Amino acid sequence: xxxxxxxxxxxxxxxxxxxxxxxxxxxxxxxxxxxxxxxxxxxxxxxxxxxxxxxxxxxxxxxxxxxxxxxxxxxxxxxxxxxxxxxxxxxxxxxxxxxxxxxxxxxxxxxxxxxxxxxxxxxxxxxxxxxxxxxxxxxxxxxxxxxxxxxxxxxxxxxxxxxxxxxxxxxxxxxxxxxxxxxxxxxxxxxxxxxxxxxxxxxxxxxxxxxxxxxxxxxxxxxxxxxxxxxxxxxxxxxxxxxxxxxxxxxxxxxxx
Length: 257
Prior knowledge:
Elements: H1 2-11, H2 14-24, E1 77-79, E2 89-96, E3 102-113, E4 121-132, E5 138-147, E6 158-166, E7 178-180, E8 193-199, H3 200-208, E9 217-229, E10 236-248
């Protein structure tokens, strides 16, 4: 919790407060691209179901899952090549040539939801194939973003929790409106489905002081990405599959490790 204490102390200093808010309150990382308006449509929770995600296994195609920043990266695919259950999964296909570099490049799978209460648990499965690391900061993660949260301070436009799943062992960059919680620090295992889960409500309570209430929407992103790639180092490649994604009460979690 010392990071939170230091952060709040800095925000009390007027000059630093303006700087911090200016560089670190984008929906993704400081200096990153801004999502095109209308790309993702917030969803009401499915009626009569514990899972807040619509189409969690991609058996009904891609919607209402969406992709952000299509000017930077291609959209996700619905694949029948590999699936944890059923016949389909979501595929993020990273293909970045060796000569390309940059601060960050993110391949996304996103759903936005508007539940009345903040959910308890996220779980699911990922699978990695063809992992070629083009920079030390190449990794998988999922991100939970709560927008317009009146009960959390400081008063950022959004409050985030970020969950690296594999590929990095240290925080990849500084961001004022997010905390990192590592679910894995090793290189990703390839050729097998890997289960993950996290009580996101407890994490918001621990790191932000309370679970979000009164928010306008939640955005959940499942990613493969890199940060700080130097041109000419190596190609950054991966095929990352996500399937059987769940967000809701822990007691109703349909997934098992």
